[in-house]
Amino acid sequence: MKVAANFGTMFTNVPLIERYAKAAKLGFKLVEVPFPYSVDAEVLKREADKYNLKHVLINGPPGNFEAGERGLAALASEKDRFLDSLETAVKYAKVLGLTKEPSAFQVFVEHVRIAAERFAKEGIECLIEPINGYTIPGYFLNSLSQAIQVLELVNNPNLKIMFDFFHIQQISGQLTHEITKFVSKIVSQVPKRDEPHKPGEIDHAYVFNLLKQVNPNWIIGAEYVNTSETEDTVAWVKKYGLEF
Questions:
Q1: Cys-Cys link to 28, which of 23, 95, 205, 210 (CB 3.0-4.6 A)?
Q2: Where is the Xylose isomerase-like TIM barrel domain (predicted)?
Q3: Is-above-0.70 flag for pTM?
């Protein structure tokens, strides 16, 4: 199984464009860029190519983050903005080479259906991610069961769940049970959210071994807050039998 550096939490002491060099220096070959939109897609692609890095995931534009928006898909009054943001996400996904990710709930399902169909036309897998309400208060999709319901209603094989260990453990616990129960519906990635080999609630050795059995082709997103920029911050990759 391979590990991707997540630029939303790693190397945040430097501008986005400089994080590619730091990831490459530590041996990463894959990167996730949650919010790439402050830099032109072509510039990011050139920087990734410079260090032989491959983009594997971006998030859709969140709207006005400073004003408290955490996505537009569940906002009935923002359909036009959502559709515009969807096209922006498609543009970035294509340039970066990401090819093969009523009530508020009703609006969310409708918008996710549109997104899944739009991305499918471009060969891009569409993902939704449940996030716990403690880390991002007000985030709409805040339970795994709700995400499963969305998948069932949209009924599109191009739509999957982004399964984040940190958030699922905070939301419901029973991490490994949820992995095995919903294996066909997910793609994969506690308290301090630091390196997986540091002390915490999750037995990562057990979890990574389970993931290898479930689907050895999954990519694990390294969405943690790195405590250093030395080889120690990626020591867990070798420790748990993973690779870059």
A1: 23
A2: 21-239
A3: no
Q: Which of 129, 152, 195, 243 is catalytic?
A: 129
Distance of alpha carbon 79 from alpha carbon 86, whole angstroms: 10
Structural domains in the chain, sorted by start: 2-239 (3.20.20.150)
Is 223 a residue of the active site? yes
Q: Which of 223, 229, 231, 243 is catalytic?
A: 223
**Beta partners for 219?**
2
* Tens digit of each residue's pLDDT, the chain (244 residues): 899 999 999 999 999 999 999 999 999 999 999 999 999 999 999 999 999 999 999 999 988 888 888 888 888 888 999 999 999 999 999 999 987 647 889 999 999 999 999 999 999 999 998 888 777 888 898 888 889 899 999 999 999 888 777 767 766 666 666 666 655 555 544 333 445 555 555 677 777 888 888 788 888 888 777 878 888 888 888 888 888 8
Q: Helix/strand/coil (H, E, C) string of 181-225? A: HCHHHEEECCCCCCCCCCCCCCCHHHHHHHHHHHCCCCEEEECCC
Q: What is the 3-state secondary structure (H, E, C) of 10-41?
A: CCCCCCHHHHHHHHHHCCCCEEEECCCCCCCH
